Amino acid sequence: MKxxxxxxxxxxxxxxxxxxxxxxxxKCEKCHKGEKTVDKMVEKNKIATADDLKSLLRTGxxxxxxxxxxxxxxxxxxxxxxxx
Length: 84
Ligand code: HEC
Known about the structure:
This protein is mostly helical. Helices cover 61% and strands 0% of the residues. Helix 1 crosses helix 4 and helix 3 packs across helix 4. Heme C (HEC) is lined by residues 27-28, 30-32, 36, 38, 41-42, 45, 47, 56-57, 60-62, 65-66, 69, 73-74, 77.
């Protein structure tokens, strides 16, 4: 019984983390799919911090594409991507 309870707690916890994580890049995923997922973009552009991500999206060559995104969207994405 105890084990089942522990398993259920773990499952609920993981589900919660997964939905939270997903919410962070949900908006990005409207455009970033397949070959161009955000984590691939981050890797390709050598983005290491949340500030790097923000300044690239605000002032980079593709700033126009990212205009509708709020600071919170970018911050959420940075959290999900585990940028500092
Ligand atoms: C309206 C569509 C759209 C949305 C929404 C969007 N992007 Fe993009 N993004 C693009 C396009 C188009 C490119 C250029 C892709 C390419 O270079 O092939 C791009 C490029 C990028 C790049 C590379 C930047 C560069 O200058 O080359 C990063 C990093 C990125 N996006 C991150 C994000 C993140 C993080 C989000 C969510 C917070 C997001 N994008 C949301 C369309 C979008």
